[in-house]
Amino acid sequence: MPTPAVLAIDQGTTGSTCLVVGRDGNVLGRSYSEFTQHFPQSGWVEHDAEKIYRNTVEAVATLLARGKVSKKNIAGISITNQRETFVVFDKESGEPLYNAIVWQCRRGEEICRHLVEAGHEPLVQERTGLKIDTYFPASKIGWLLNDQPTIANKLADGEAYVGTIDAYLIYRLTGGRVFATDQTNASRTLLFDINKLAWDDELCELFGVPRSALPEVYDSNAVFGETDFDGLLDKPLPISGVMGDSQAALFAQHCFEPGTCKVTFGTGSSVLLNIGEQPAFSNRGIVTAVAWVIAGQPAYAFEGITNFTGATITWLRDQLGLIESVEETEELVRAVDDNGGVHLIPAFVGLSAPYWEPRARAAIVGLSPASNRSHVVRAALEGIAFRIRDVLQLMVQDAGVPLQHIHADGGAVQNSFLMQFVADEVQVTVRASRLAELSAQGAALAGMLGTGIYESLDDLKQLRQPFVDYKPSIDAAAADRAYQDWLLAVNQVLANF
């Protein structure tokens, strides 16, 4: 009897990763396929949605072609995804009617500003746990429908659908038989009531989004139809284990109990703190998220978002030419004793929690004649860590639970300087996973619950992930001094608005 495994898709902001995860949690095979982001104008970010689908299929084909994983061992398909990116597509053909509008895109700012000024934010936050911000899809869907009346008519007439990337992929992979998402993705739209775990008609009307155009909502470990991946598999297999990428990483890190926390270092960063089975709300810029719903039982989390993490380092490489590779940053930052008074505020598309200033833009503050390339690169890495502290300290206070350590995942965990600096600033141990792609693994573990490979969360707790611990190397007073300097730099940026 072959050992069962799950084929997990991680559809991210810059590419699609395919993993085969065994019953023991080990990765048996991996492939990656990159695609291009499009920037039609300042503050706008788009993807070719058709390319996303083809890119995903290509990643699966590449992995299977390597022959390291037997198709006979694959028991199911799981999907994790960039949560707030959405696609509008034709109901009949599945063809995208517009480029996917990416979570980083700011084109919904005017709609958000109007709704806040009209006094709608308390209602929205009470229902969704979120701030009215263009980071979330609802305002950008509203913008698209205002800008593209033909698409608006198709949605209103039931000829088109709008959904997050997971729902779009499920629709395409099932040949249009299933149009569904899970609660973690639905809860990031500003259209979903996290108390009732259902789409909210009043919110849909507020943003001008037809309720009928939205997907059905399933538990994260439900079965979302079947697929053979355009004939790549020998037979159709169940799609089970669907989660937004940050929640999937929280799940993979076994943050099942209130007070457990993880930070995903990706293109942006998401900090999640498990707060238990009932939603709670913060009035200080921290949002509430559905962590997951497993077999009808919800878990909730506080979440703080930083928009640019890995993307900041990419910017240093591709736009400024300060580095040739991401790996080069380690050597550069260790060439100087400190940041030399330089701070990089990564507000490329605004500042999210706890500042919530969408008009802010990135800045390098504190340059002097003595400043060099190493100081700027170090300031970029430190800025990532300071943003983590920004959001984490607020959510811990509002949750009222002690923080024992941080579970870290994502590509940046390989940067030992960054991990150590986060540990120093937050003053807790950072437990950095050796597996960089925990989002895919988390979705796979939920899929194992859905396909019966495992029966309960208690069974999953027996699985252990390898990690490296980074313990604080400076005292709290030194960390606070550095943080106060950061806040002064941020205030220089915010003073313009």
In short:
This protein has 497 residues and is of the alpha+beta class. It has 16 helices and 23 strands. Strands 17-18-16-15-21-22-23 form a seven-stranded mixed β-sheet, with helices on both faces. A six-stranded mixed β-sheet has the order 3-2-1-5-14-13.
Report on the architecture of this protein:
The chain is α+β, with helices and mostly antiparallel strands and 497 residues long. The chain has a domain at 5-245: 2-Layer Sandwich (Nucleotidyltransferase, domain 5). Helices cover 34% and strands 24% of the residues. It is built from 16 helices and 23 strands. The strands form seven sheets. The chain has a seven-stranded mixed sheet with strand order 17-18-16-15-21-22-23, with helices on both faces. The chain has a six-stranded mixed sheet with strand order 3-2-1-5-14-13. It has a two-stranded antiparallel ribbon with strand order 4-7. Helix 4 crosses helix 5, helix 9 (245-252) packs across helix 14 and helix 12 packs across helix 13. The chain starts with a strand and ends with a helix.
Structural class: alpha+beta
Low-confidence stretches: none
Classified in CATH, the superfamily of the domain at 5-245 is ATPase, nucleotide binding domain
CATH topology of the domain at 5-245: Nucleotidyltransferase, domain 5
Give me the number of helical elements. Answer: 16
User: Count the strands?
Assistant: 23
Give the DSSP E fraction (strand runs of 2 or more residues): 15-25%
Question: What's the mean pLDDT score?
Answer: 93
Strand order of the largest sheet: 17-18-16-15-21-22-23
Gyration radius, to the nearest Å?
Answer: 22 Å
The name of the CATH architecture of the domain at 5-245 is 2-Layer Sandwich
Terminus-to-terminus distance:
64 Å
Give the CATH class of the domain at 5-245.
Alpha Beta
How would you sum up the major sheet? 7 strands, mixed
The global form is: globular
